[in-house]
Design goal:
168 residues; mainly alpha; Cytochrome Bc1 Complex, Chain D, domain 2
Length: 168
């Protein structure tokens, strides 16, 4: 009698040549797939979200924290009008961010009533939407002259501040 189990063990691979081809491809195909994936991932430029890796951006990120500016302490002080045009006029001519306009006596009246010292303090340290003006392009004396210029142009009668005394 013949064994009935021998016919049941047949599959798609019938010859040793087919068997070697299947074994070879089962090792080679995954290797090429892995190489292709690594190449796909490695060659694409994928910076982090919002990151700019250009040489200018890297230089900006690694620059020194502080900088020193040397200003000529002996330069002539700018007038109140010059400082107003250079720094204050952007907001105080248009009324941006609630700034009182130059010449608007109704808007300036309550501010003028607080006095020159309060106005100067607000200008140097900032108030509401106006940032601090001290430590910027103009020195405190020039800012004080600008405060007097704006207030006097809007109904005040403040005297010009005296120039700072040089310290030895």
């Amino acid at each position: 009698m013949s064994d009935p189990h021998e016919e049941a063990h047949t599959g798609p691979v019938k010859t040793p040549k087919q068997f070697l081809a299947v074994v070879f491809l089962s090792f080679v195909v995954p290797i090429f797939v892995i190489i292709g994936l690594v190449h796909f991932i490695d060659t694409q430029n994928k910076p982090s979200a919002g990151a700019d890796n250009s040489s200018e951006a890297v230089a900006a990120r690694i620059q020194k924290v502080g900088a020193v500016q040397v200003k000529d302490a002996n330069r002539p002080a700018k007038t109140g009008e010059e400082v107003f045009k250079a720094q204050c006029g952007a907001c105080h001519l248009s009324g941006a961010a609630g700034a009182p306009k130059l010449g608007d006596t109704a808007a300036w009246a309550p501010r003028i009533k607080t006095g020159y010292a309060a106005l100067l303090n607000s200008a140097l340290k900032g108030k509401n939407a106006m940032g601090a003006q001290a430590g910027g392009e103009h020195n405190d004396y020039e800012i004080a002259r600008s405060v007097v210029y704006m207030a006097n142009g809007s109904g005040a009668k403040f005297a010009e501040p005296p120039p700072p005394v040089a310290s030895n």
